Amino acid sequence: xxxxxxxxxxxxxxxxxxxxxxxxxxxxxxxxxxxxxxxxxxxxxxxxxxxxxxxxxxxxxxxxxxxxxxxxxxx
Length: 75
Known about the structure:
The protein is 0% helix and 40% strand. The chain is mainly β. Strand 3 and strand 4 (26-28) form a beta hairpin.
């Protein structure tokens, strides 16, 4: 029997996905190593950069939006 992690309508294949939520910070892994599908009609934010490893997919369901928040460094 496999376990699943479901946070705010984002469901992953198992609970090994690293997503940490504290009182004022959210963190996520920098690479996707499993298939992920968002819930329908949801807004999703990922903190980037993000690598989707070979053989895995991230699916944004119908009516949903996804944004990757990425730091831009100016030199």
